[in-house]
Amino acid sequence: MAPRKLDLTDHRYGALAVVAEAHTRKTPSGSTVTYWQCRCDCGRTVDVPAHSLRRKKNPTVTCGDRGAHRSGKAHPMYGKRAEESGNWRGDSVAYTSAHQRVKAEHGPASGWRCACGCGRQAEEWAYLGTDPEPKLSTHADSLGSLYSTNPEHYAPLAMTCHKRFDVWQAQRRTGLPLGAAVIEAVAA
Asked: The whole model's pTM is what?
C-alpha cells in the first residue's frame, strides 16, 4: 500500500500561506520532492519544497525578499489600521507586542547603526523614555520595565549601550545615586 500523499494546502508557515501544490522534482538520488506554491504576507508568490516548510530546525517561513521583510511590509498588520488586530489595538498592547510593533514598523534593530553614535551595529530596540504616558510591564520577564505603544519612542542600540541607557534612565527616574542604580541593575 502506497503512503498517503501529504496535502499542505491552506497551511501556514510563518509568513507563508500554502496555496496549492506547484510541481514535483526528482533528486539525483531518485527520491521525489514536492514543491508547494506559497503566498507570502508581503505579496510575493514562491515555490517551496515541502521538507523546507516542515523541518523543525530553520524552516522556510518567508519568501526571502529581505527588503519587504525588513521594512515590515510582510507583517500581517502592514497597511492596516491598528483597530483591525486583536493584540495590536491602540494602547492595549503588552510589552512584547509593543516591541514587535516597533520591529514591524522599523525592521529589525540589526539593520541599523547604534543611535548613541558609538558606530557599532544595533542589536535591540530601546525605549527612549520620551512617551508622556508610558506603560509599565507586568510580564515576568520584563516586570517593571517602562515601554511605549508608539514605535516612534524607540531607537536602535547596541546591547551594551542599551544596558547603560537603561541604568541612566532608572537613575533619572528613581533619583537613586548612579552607583546604587548600577548595583540594582546588575543584580536584576
From this structure: 0.48
